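Support reply, case 0932

Customer input (verbatim):
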Amino acid sequence: MHGQYVHIRARIESLEHLSGHADYGEILGWLHKFQKPPGKTFLVHGEPKAAESLRQKVAQELQWDVSVGSYLQKVQL
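Our regenerated output:
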């Protein structure tokens, strides 16, 4: 990064059998399998009303900190 090597603490995961067009039930089923919830979850795909509906379902069922991202939104992690 900017001419310097940066140690990356990440891994690549493969999401098998999860369609980009999965319904909320399939998505929630997949999220329920997480052993530990993420610190913050961002929904960045789909129509605004559908994304907000999914955000509410995830927050209610899983008690996760989840928000719907907005166009060109920047978030410091």
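We compared this against your earlier run and they match. Two observations from our side: The radius of gyration is 15 Å. The chain has a mean pLDDT of 88. Please reopen the case if you see a mismatch on your end.
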